[in-house]
Amino acid sequence: MRRPPVVLLALTLIAAALCSPSSGVGLSSGTPVYAQDTLGGTPSQAPSPPPFGLPFNTPPGPTTWLFGQAYGNTTGAYAYRRIWYGTGQGIHFGIDFSARCGTPVVAIGDGTVAIVDNLGYGSGPHNLIIQHPNGYASLYGHLLKRPDLSVGQVVQKGEVVAFTGDPDLTCTSRPHLHLEIRPRTLNGTVDAVNFIDADWDALALVSAFGHGFQRNLDNPRQWQTLQDQPSITWGGPLLNDFPRTWPYDWK
Ligand SMILES: [Zn+2]
After folding, report:
1. Which structural domains are found in the chain, ordered by start?
2. Coil/strand/helix, residue 233
3. Which of 141, 196, 198, 218 is the most buried (most CB within 10 A)?
4. pLDDT tens digits along 82-103
5. 164 C-alpha to center of ligand 1: Å?
6. Which residues surround ligand 1, an ion (CB under 5 A)?
7. Checking phi first, is residue 61 left (phi over 0); if not, alpha (psi -120 to 50) or beta?
8. H or E segment and range at residue 100
9. Closest C-alpha to 163, from 65, 70, 84
């Protein structure tokens, strides 16, 4: 469905307002705090250096883990924009790492356990959220079992906190870790690629992520790289309901 021009204009104005410096949380000198309380289509900020690490302690490879699907305006998220990703504005709101069931998952940064196994935050059958002192939270989803952690427990970067599972509960259909980075309010997500210190372009070379990003033919360079993807706010309008697009919409 084509969005009425008046809505597009309103979205443009809102996006412009959100991009203003006043929308960010102020920095105290030397303290890397990047969180925004309002997201929804704004570009993900790119902290330098990225504050977090990968969620695995092993190198990537066919016997460990591989970069499965990027965050953002992916072809898969577009295809399922009204179903799986509708509440996330049509965007794949995390990074998928393909891994066989039971692969150890580590905390991407020091932090405190905030949520254990609350499916109100998505990514069943089991999930985990860790709050980090820099104003962001990490969500680990599609876990094999309930993490053996309690709310309030302090965890260290690199510490094993969970094990990968499969959203289909088979461990053969699509076993993977879904990792999100959210602002501390948990009301949306940012492009985790910009927050995790890794050679993403090299990881993408050997990944299953071969279909890339959905193209908006009216703005063909928009959201086409790993690093240039929009933040989302839960419940916001679809960002990728493109009237003219490639690949074609499967209806
Ligand atoms: Zn995912």
Report:
1. 49-246 (2.70.70.10)
2. strand
3. 141
4. 999 999 999 999 999 999 999 9
5. 12
6. 94, 96, 178
7. left
8. none
9. 65
What is the pLDDT at residue 85?
94
Q: Please tell me the predicted confidence (pLDDT) of residue 250.
A: 75
Position 251 scores a pLDDT of 65
Q: How many CB atoms lie within 10 A of CB 189?
A: 29
CA of 70 to the centre of ligand 1 (A): 8
Helices within the chain (DSSP H only): 5-18, 75-79, 200-205
Biggest alpha carbon distance in the chain? Answer: 51
Query: Residues 189-208: pLDDT tens digits?
Result: 999 999 999 999 999 988 77
Quick check: 218 pLDDT over 60? yes
**What's the confidence (pLDDT) of residue 14?**
37
Of 143, 138, 181, 178, the residue nearest 157 (C-alpha): 138
Token pair recorded at residue 52: 């977090």
Confidence bin at 22 (pLDDT 50/70/90): very low
Q: DSSP E strands: which ranges in the chain?
A: 65-69, 95-99, 104-106, 111-116, 128-131, 136-141, 154-155, 160-163, 176-183, 188-189, 215-216, 232-233, 245-246
Ligand 1 midpoint to CA 49 (Å): 24
Q: What is the pLDDT of residue 237?
A: 96
